[in-house]
Amino acid sequence: ITTSVHANGLEYIEVNSKLCYARILLQGAQIDSFIPKGQAPLLWVSSADDYQPGNGIRGGIPVCWPWFGQHPNADWPQHGFARNRQWCHFSTEVQDEIVTLKLVLPLAAADRRFWPHNTRVELHCRFGQKLRISLVNINLDDHPVTLTQALHSYFSIGDIHQLIAKGFNGAHYIEFGAGPYVQTEDDVHFERETDRVYNGLGAVQQLHTPHGTIVVKREHSHSAVLWNPWVEKSRRLARFNDDDYLQMVCLEAANVLEDAVTLAPGERHELTTEISWQA
Ligand code: BG6
């Protein structure tokens, strides 16, 4: 486990064990690499991103908190502010080659206008043969608080034309603000822009590539986002090459729409996802 500073000043922690290689930036508590030993990288990062301080990185796993998507106040940042802020690393545990890192987001006075509540938010990352991440919220306030959130995972999938996503059957989804629709086919293929919020979704999805399968499990989450920007939106996205959409897909463990989290005073919630590779 080593802590280093990127050329442009971003601090990161690297984990290099018998089970995996992983890297997490303190900015945004953003994991930008996870490679199970002997496998290819599971996470995707755009080569167009130059790792500037203050911006979430285009790839890896940005943390969307305490709201997902566009806020009703249109000038507030999309996907909340946590992905752009400096988090603090406060604990490291190693057991049987599995490394667990815990980070907390100190809420700055300037962020009180976005989030006036007294809550604690932590990210717990367990790096083994699998990657397990929990976004932990604890309400320390004297009133209920409601939030939406997502672990906005970008996966490296080789070729979007050959990707088949499975495990969505029977769930409702909203696409580009339209719907709700019901997912009737078991398989999702990608032939156009796909930007769906699924609700009432089962706990396991798979991304099948010709080389193997990425398995994504979710706990304390009934919603997930499935996103590929396709041709037109790729041209408009910041820190994204025009043809990047060919190699990535986002499948995001979430608590959004009717799956928003309301915490009573003293209550705790853990949005968890577990990511692994099956050859
Ligand atoms: C996805 C949304 O989760 O994030 C998309 O569903 C959005 O609509 C995408 O374009 C990327 O957002 P951003 O703010 O990182 O460019």
From TrEMBL:
<dbReference type="GO" id="GO:0030246">
    <property type="term" value="F:carbohydrate binding"/>
</dbReference>
<dbReference type="Pfam" id="PF01263">
    <property type="entry name" value="Aldose_epim"/>
</dbReference>
<protein>
    <recommendedName>
        <fullName>Putative glucose-6-phosphate 1-epimerase</fullName>
        <ecNumber>5.1.3.15</ecNumber>
    </recommendedName>
</protein>
<feature type="binding site">
    <location>
        <position position="83"/>
    </location>
    <ligand>
        <name>substrate</name>
    </ligand>
</feature>
<dbReference type="InterPro" id="IPR008183">
    <property type="entry name" value="Aldose_1/G6P_1-epimerase"/>
</dbReference>
<dbReference type="GO" id="GO:0047938">
    <property type="term" value="F:glucose-6-phosphate 1-epimerase activity"/>
</dbReference>
<comment type="similarity">
    <text>Belongs to the glucose-6-phosphate 1-epimerase family.</text>
</comment>
<feature type="active site">
    <location>
        <position position="152"/>
    </location>
</feature>
<feature type="binding site">
    <location>
        <position position="78"/>
    </location>
    <ligand>
        <name>substrate</name>
    </ligand>
</feature>
<dbReference type="GO" id="GO:0005975">
    <property type="term" value="P:carbohydrate metabolic process"/>
</dbReference>
<feature type="active site">
    <location>
        <position position="252"/>
    </location>
</feature>
<dbReference type="InterPro" id="IPR025532">
    <property type="entry name" value="G6P_1-epimerase"/>
</dbReference>
<dbReference type="InterPro" id="IPR011013">
    <property type="entry name" value="Gal_mutarotase_sf_dom"/>
</dbReference>
<feature type="binding site">
    <location>
        <position position="58"/>
    </location>
    <ligand>
        <name>substrate</name>
    </ligand>
</feature>
<keyword id="KW-0413">Isomerase</keyword>
<dbReference type="InterPro" id="IPR014718">
    <property type="entry name" value="GH-type_carb-bd"/>
</dbReference>
